[in-house]
Design brief:
Length: 213
């Protein structure tokens, strides 16, 4: 588990508060999201397919999600995003774990990334998003067991691929910074950047707006 200094903890708390504030502001402002279709960083992130994904291969719209399993706005938005994606049928999700809510968030993110080595990331991601666990090492493993993860292999993967997992988290932090995300959740929907939790119908509107860019 990652140990944070007092300065790092305060910094993360500030990011979390900024993200929560952004979620609230977003609900009362228009238009929905920001056009970043000409942004070089956004284009490179959208074209990077080296991440766990969900959705049809022939999808006509890609959504990159930056989320934290302990972020209240992320937990609220996750099932609503899934609902909109299922109803649309032409959207592919790319998952980016960006743990900013402390060491428990990072522990959960590391395990989620490790389950991708078993081809089980999406199931683990959904289970973590649906959980209201305190995300201790034991509770995370219990969640993993509940979705059929091979716990013995998971333990080996977490140790053997620790450096790879750290690299992936670093890439997520870097890309979040490149997009100047103030916190989680952040959604790169085609060329549309949205910060904060949305309702299912708002996600649907964002999908259609992104297709028009």
């Amino acid at each position: 588990m990652v140990t944070l200094t007092r300065r790092e903890t305060l910094s993360l708390a500030g990011v979390a508060m900024a993200g929560a504030a952004a979620s609230i502001v977003l609900q009362s402002t228009a238009p929905l999201g920001r056009d970043v279709s000409d942004n070089a960083a956004a284009k490179s992130i959208m074209e990077d397919n080296d991440w766990p994904s969900f959705g049809p291969e022939d999808a006509d719209l890609t959504v990159v999600t930056f989320t934290d399993y302990r972020c209240p706005a992320c937990l609220y938005a996750a099932p609503r995003l899934d609902e909109a994606v299922e109803k649309d049928g032409r959207v592919r999700l790319l998952y980016r774990d960006w743990p900013i809510f402390g060491p428990q968030s990072e522990e959960a993110a590391r395990v989620a990334i490790a389950t991708h080595l078993q081809g089980r990331y999406v199931a683990m991601h959904k289970a973590l998003m649906a959980s209201r666990s305190d995300f201790t090492a034991a509770s995370i493993m219990q969640i993993a067991a509940g979705v059929g993860i091979d716990l013995q292999r998971l333990g080996v993967d977490l140790e053997t691929h620790a450096s790879l997992i750290s690299q992936r988290l670093s890439r997520n932090r870097l890309d979040a910074a490149r997009m100047r995300l103030p916190g989680t959740p952040g959604y790169l929907i085609g060329g549309l950047l949205i910060v904060g939790a949305l309702q299912a119908d708002e996600f649907a509107t964002a999908f259609e707006n992104a297709r028009k860019l």
